[in-house]
Amino acid sequence: MELSPATQNFILHWGEMGAKWGVNRSVAQIHALLHVMPDPMTAEDISETLNLARSNVSNGLKELQAWKLVKVSRQLGDRRDHFTSVRDMFDLVTVVIEGRREREYAPTLAALKAVAEEAETDGTPKKVRGRIRETLETMQLFDDWYRDVSRLPRAVQLSAVKLGARVAKFLPKGKSG
């Protein structure tokens, strides 16, 4: 399959972005390809299009499926699996944010809670305990906010995002000037 220059650049940039986020570049490129392609693709199609080893594509697809970013489907008369990215952009962003929260943020909160408890009895200086507590409380505040917002209906979430900083007009001391 021949890709346009813009499509190639999108895939290359997505791969670079993925690498900066700690995702293997080829895995991010596979996701980018599936994200922009209008129809499901087989692993062979992906391998040929991106010029990646079939084993690399297979491993990348397994990783993307584990992250719930890619879905597999079957087609009548074809024994091969066909892959697509999550199609809805709101759902895609939600899957990424929730996945990163579960893999990175939540374990950090749990570790900070344990450290804060340990610091209360192990001779940690008061000022250090205070910084640990402040770090935990601030991170917990953002996590609580995220969980509250994530439970809101999509329409409300979208309205809040579109409203942006203008929400300050509705809050105490939020009016400027």
Describe the structure.
The structure is a single chain. A two-stranded antiparallel ribbon has the order 1-2. The chain has seven helices and two strands. The protein has helices spanning 5-20, 25-36, 43-50, 54-66, 89-119, 126-150, 154-163; strands at residues 70-75, 78-85. With 177 residues, the protein is mainly alpha-helical. The mean pLDDT is 91. It has two domains: 5-85, Winged helix-like DNA-binding domain superfamily/Winged helix DNA-binding domain (Arc Repressor Mutant, subunit A, Orthogonal Bundle); 89-163. The N and C termini lie far apart (57 Å). It is elongated.
Write the layout of secondary structure elements.
Layout: H1 5-20, H2 25-36, H3 43-50, H4 54-66, E1 70-75, E2 78-85, H5 89-119, H6 126-150, H7 154-163
Antiparallel strand pairs: 1-2
Number of E-state strands: 2
Could you say what the CATH architecture of the largest domain is?
A: Orthogonal Bundle
Percent range for β-strand residues: 5-15%
Count, helices: 7
CATH topology of the largest domain: Arc Repressor Mutant, subunit A
Describe the structure concisely for a colleague.
Helices cover 65% and strands 8% of the residues.
Task: Give the key terms.
Arc Repressor Mutant, subunit A, single chain, 7 helices, 177 residues, 65% helix, elongated, mainly alpha, two-stranded antiparallel ribbon
